[in-house]
Amino acid sequence: MNKKRKAGKERRRDRLSRLPEPIIHHILSFLATRSAVQTSVLSRSWRSAWKHVPVLDFSQHSFQRYSSFHRYVGNVLSLRYPLNLRKVKFADGERRSDGRDDSLVIRVIQYALSHDARHLVIDNANDVISPDIYRFSDLFGSATSSSNCNLETLELEGFEIDSGFGSPGFRMLTSLDLWTCLVACGEEEVLEPFSNFPCLKHLSLRDLINDHPGLMKIHGLELLSLKLHTVKFYRIEIDAPKLKFFGIWDDVEWLYYSNLSLPSLDHADIGLHGKLRFDEEDKECVALQLINLFRGLQNAKSLNLYRDTTIPVTTLVTASCIHK
């Protein structure tokens, strides 16, 4: 009798084991993969639950040695159930002195794409001008040549964007975020790095630099939202007939915008920083840059203007204000 009572108490106490598997997988998807594996020991029925979690989140920062991180990621990819993968996140460390190479991140990318992941985040912690920068064509070249790449969102940090960017393998992509990336281009070269993303609706560029002065054209037939934060190009042209939101946060001396075609623009946020006083020659140049920018925003229904703050110093609510 006592054994039956004890067994009954154990069953009532272990409520975790009685949760439906989809709920268990959903709970574990909020954890880093290493934590999800460790959490699986909480309940007998959870022991293999991590193999079915739809999110993989790898970060080297929780490992002291890169070799341990490399081995751990490889084991997870080998043991995981091969279906129901929704998102993959991979954050690399800051050093290659401990034997880091590109083989691991290439394996992660190939695994994500071959298992039909819809969201991919690759974070390279190295400085954009370091020799450890990832080159897009090296990592994605062969993986995206397959016609079954169904990525919908892509976030990259610490990459060199070269001629292989935007291959036909990304035709389903709707959202793209680039952080701290170097755009490789020749002297006075005209770049159209986003022309191979026909379904792109949201584009965010932050701390984007180029190694030579050049022209970057952003052409997006389906683009709805465009955010540019410290994008240092010689000149930027934008053609986005459906764009609803446009945001710029940059130094007042780097507003090299011309030929902006934004006929459907609803709202724009313009954040400016940098020095206010210029000599006569620079003052004329900056004034011309601002005029070109605001001419391109003439269809906006409202506009917030910021100066070294998140609080707008000016709000323009009609297009007629911009014309003035």
From TrEMBL:
Protein name according to UniProt: F-box domain-containing protein
PANTHER family: OS06G0556300 PROTEIN (PTHR34223:SF51), OS11G0201299 PROTEIN (PTHR34223)
SUPFAM superfamilies associated with the record: F-box domain, RNI-like
A Pfam family matched in the record: F-box
Record domain F-box: where: 13-66
PROSITE patterns given in the database record: FBOX
Spans through the membrane: none
